[in-house]
Amino acid sequence: MKPILIIAEVMGECVRPVTWELIAAARMIQNLIEKEGGVNKKKFPGIQVIVPAQNPMPLAKKISSHGGIDVLALEIPTPAAYTSEAYKNWLSPEISELAPSHILVAHTSQGRDFAPGLAVRLKAVSISGVNRIVSDGDGLLYSRPVLNNTRNMVLRPESGLPVVLTLMAGSFSPQTYEAKDPGLIITKKISPKPGLPVQMVHEKILKQETNNQALKMAQTIVAAGRGIGEKSNLEAVLRFAKCFSSSAVGASRPLVDMGWIGYDQQVGITGASVAPMLYLACGISGSSQHLAGMKESDWVVSINKNPDAPICRHADLCITAGVMEFIRTFLEND
Ligand SMILES: Cc1cc2nc3c(=O)[nH]c(=O)nc-3n(C[C@H](O)[C@H](O)[C@H](O)COP(=O)(O)OP(=O)(O)OC[C@H]3O[C@@H](n4cnc5c(N)ncnc54)[C@H](O)[C@@H]3O)c2cc1C
């Protein structure tokens, strides 16, 4: 049975937490394949992880102890620097050798950058932004959000071809697995091939000038979404937030994109990840990208005029109301 392969996301000396979500998704695929074909234990697809890093061994050990998964510790040339070209050059021969059925990559800025090109090199199917995987008895189906997250497109790849998937953060919950023994670790060193064309070099990574400390420290976050209607309504949202001690105002991305509020206040996959005691989502639909940044909140309260908004599936309390009417009534009675 062809293995399911994961490309660990490495940042400096660390494995990024999204890697544990990729492992959870791989386990899910494993189970779905088993149920689909009644695969006997001997042919149960294995999971393997490639860890591309300058010093991959400590990271490989950490992963292999996570449920006894086999790891390829791929030592990449120094100075180690990510570029999509380099990743495709380094990874494609290793992956071709392993001949996996699935290649799982995080849907992060890095994963989105190299995964489609990698799929081209591997002559594989490429599906980006997957948030759900199911089986219908005829194979696996992959869903990805479309039309501004209001619909899910369900895709069925041609059978027999390898599939490169980028998986949305927050869609596959990481789990703890018990394993008696750690998995096997194989080490391999990539030597830069002089003949390979170098289309770009990695110069440096600049830290973004953001200051979202207030958001990170707040015990209550009042987050405004497109449902607040107008920029001028932010003033009332601010006053609403001040009714709570240790509070801060956050926002969904459209408000930042429209220039209503600063990027420091954006919550989500491309903004801040927060974990307050109370998260008040005001006119926010609950896209997977937004949920990824606030899913660790202790309590979530949604104020939304649509009782079927996706956020309601994740909230502890859903208040079905016009958000500005609710906030103004609250302020009048405070
Ligand atoms: C690569 C990528 C990265 C992204 N990163 C992020 C990110 O980090 N953070 C983020 O937030 N988004 C991110 N997005 C955008 C994301 O997909 C959604 O578009 C966004 O989260 C939607 O914001 P929203 O909920 O405010 O708006 P909408 O989806 O438009 O939802 C508005 C909500 O308000 C409700 N509403 C409308 N009027 C009222 C009213 N009068 N009273 C009460 N409720 C009302 C509606 O019912 C609806 O549920 C990203 C998208 C991509 C493609």
List strands and helices in order, with pairings:
Elements: E1 4-7, E2 10-11, E3 14-15, H1 18-37, E4 47-53, H2 57-64, E5 70-75, H3 84-98, E6 102-106, H4 109-122, E7 125-130, E8 132-135, E9 140-146, E10 151-155, E11 163-167, E12 185-189, H5 213-217, E13 220-224, H6 234-242, E14 247-251, H7 253-257, E15 278-282, H8 288-294, E16 299-304, E17 317-320, H9 323-333
Parallel strand pairs: 1-4, 1-6, 4-5, 5-12, 6-11, 7-11, 13-14, 13-15, 15-16, 16-17
Antiparallel strand pairs: 2-3, 8-9, 9-10
The protein binds flavin-adenine dinucleotide.
Which descriptors apply to this entry?
2 domains; Rossmann fold; about 325 residues; alpha/beta; 9 helices; 5-stranded parallel sheet; 17 strands; about 30% helix; binds flavin-adenine dinucleotide; globular; 7-stranded parallel sheet
* Alpha-carbon distance between the two ends: 64 Å
In quaternary terms, these chains amount to: single chain
- Backbone structural class: alpha/beta
Strand order of the biggest β-sheet: 7-11-6-1-4-5-12
Count helical runs.
9
CATH topology of the largest domain: Rossmann fold
Question: How big a fraction of the residues is strand?
Answer: 15-25%
What overall form do the CA principal axes indicate?
globular
**Spans of 5+ residues with little confidence (pLDDT < 50)?**
none
The CATH superfamily title of the largest domain = HUPs
- The CATH architecture designation of the largest domain is 3-Layer(aba) Sandwich
Biggest sheet, in brief?
7 strands, parallel
Our count of domains comes out at 2
Strand segment tally: 17
CATH class bucket of the largest domain: Alpha Beta
Order of helices and strands: EEEHEHEHEHEEEEEEHEHEHEHEEH
What hetero molecules are bound to the protein chains? flavin-adenine dinucleotide
